[in-house]
């Protein structure tokens, strides 16, 4: 339930001001609705990844309300950007299976709101859990997985190290949690995104990965797409793990959502499908072009800054040399 009316058009920064239950816990999120209202609109659940040092629990998903508002306004979706348990102001402490339950709770909340079908888009760990929830929940219409790991074997091999990290980034705040370390650690071996991707088919799957991701290997993305059999796989050149902040990845996501809306909900004629697909392709191309222009402008600014810095260094060297020539030397003794 919202503490205050969720807004997608206010000038003030959007916050996680929406409450909804996950078992006995109250989670937080941001609910964005299209300008014309939520009736007959598709629903999207946005899931963030696992916090890291420098962006701990209080900052989890802070940029996702902005993305939710954009999707609501531009595409006409009802979007719930959620905080998992232990993140932001959401109650509870992190566990892998608890987070999977939270995804299910987010899907249930969107269905309760009366949307016309629910899709999930997840980043990092959120993407892994999105695929798993999609596989086990037939009400999920499709999944987008961005920078998504295919397993958590490293966490399973070193659960105490992960527990320390979870405390460091504040997703576990209760010093007495977990009540059973063995059960908590076993959760890492219970999540299998590759197997889930296979079960998700033939429902649609979008897989987006950066070729410079230093946290999740590119082969993970390819394995997900391969297991599904008919996934749309998009490789973002030069992109790292933080695809939420890469405008090209966001453009791909928006284009995919637009096509989902056309293909699954509208049920138009063939001519209308062709026209709408062309419009969606043009939208994605425009988004990608804008993203490339933004990247080029950033690169140009960096080059200009480097040239300016080099000129300043050269000027300083010349000035120093000129000063040395003008300084009188002592006569020989």
UniProtKB/TrEMBL annotation:
Protein name as catalogued: Unannotated protein
This protein's UniProt keywords: Coiled coil
Ranges where the record places region Disordered: 314-333
Stretches assigned to the AB hydrolase-1 domain: 44-174
Residue ranges with Basic and acidic residues bias: 322-333
Coiled coil: 266-306
PANTHER family: DIENELACTONE HYDROLASE DOMAIN-CONTAINING PROTEIN-RELATED (PTHR22946)
Organism per entry: freshwater metagenome
Protein family according to the UniProt entry: Belongs to the AB hydrolase superfamily. FUS2 hydrolase family.
